[in-house]
Request: fold
Amino acid sequence: MKRTVPMLITAAVGFTLIGAYFVPYTQNWGESVAIWFDVLAAIAFILGGGNLLRTHLKRISDQGRGWGYSAIVLVAFVATLFVGLGKIGVAPSPQFPDHAWSGQYRQTGSAFWFMYQYAFSPLTSTIFALLAFYIASAAFRAFRAKNLEAKLLLGTAFIILLGRTFAGVALTDWIDPANWDGFRYFTGLRLENLTVYIMAVFNTAGNRAIMIGIALGIVATSLKILIGVDRSYLGKD
Amino acid sequence: MSWLDPTRIWFLGLLIVLCGAVLAYIFAARRGLRMKVRRIAGLEAVDDAVGRATEMGRSCLYIPGLQDMNDIQTIASLTILSRVAKTAAEYDAKIEVPTTRSLVMTAARETVQAAYLAAGRPEAFSPDQVYYVTDEQFGYVAYVQGLMVRERPAACFYMGSFFAESLLLAEMGNSVGAIQIAGTAQPAQLPFFVAACDYTLIGEEFFAASAYLSGEPDQLGSLKGQDIGKLIVVAGIVTGVTAATLANLTGSPAIRAFVDFLINKILT
Reply:
């Protein structure tokens, strides 16, 4: 029973969404189902908040490694919640000037906006910026010329990297019909043109092959879930 | 208004053929037809990775992607989590599952708990193994990177839908010396995982994982059904390319009309 009811709900909702895609009469049903999911996700958000508090309070209580970070998380969580729910620093909406809480919580100049703009945004940008360094270290390992395939990969990557820089363009700009008429047959060898060719032909072909495999995998997996052949996500192995 | 959307009839036809092939092979497998599945190195390595974590006395870290339960990749990820958690329970290894969505947390808890039960060690399961971190992409990355540096997990699994965080997580896992297995259906993130992880499940391999790991005839049959889909796609590509080439070479209006029909009716 514990597995059957969720499985039936999954099948009913899944087939409704498929039907809504093909049958114009049932299009509204699909939209309703999508709204149900949003409602569920919103309720689950409270569950997530509760779990966050519980997990980090436990870590602080246990005084395990990194418990100080948990304290920072809790302080930031409570402060953001207080500032957002309390609409601190939010001016009343022009429509309802007598109601102090009628303004938007993200209003420019509000405490929530200030925290988002000057704390959250720079912090996330900092983490994102680390990607540049990680790309360099991953590329260093990936492009070691150990065998023929790795050498081909290295060569291709080198062309793409050069073709996307000013230096790469400058290196082969002498292949110009203005210099010698015969060069008009070789303009495809200019690094910027080679880059476009590799990306448009080889890269696109490989990508599409992967995409076709993914699409077929999604169809088969969805069908297995809808008809209950695969129930491992519900706990059955 | 017609009962069926006329612009989607061909798509519906293709879907019926594909689903029919999958169902036919599932029923054939139930009747005893033997299915041969090629070896997938990334999935064979799951037991080794968990075993290594056990030997080293360190934990396994499982990241189920950044999307919610309405994403098929997250569901596929939970099916793999079921197997990883069962192996971890059998080997008595610690498994930790930080999530970015509350619904994923509750579903993953159920999955892990059932896996521990299936392994015969329900008492070893703790709900604290699966927890919610944040919905924010880079906030989640910061937490998981910090966790990796502090706990130094011996095995990291990245299965699900990933975006810019794929390389941030995989490179950090690499730097702490973890054995790493990734799987995603996001083509843009595959090169990052291939560069930074020991094994990567590419696209359809990720969706095949559930069937491969379970070994159930029903599920293996669905993989064979997918092969029929591939044959249809290959036939379509060969027909389309040949027709388009002939249309250009001969200038035949009939072949051109056929190519236009393929593009504007079937592929729309």
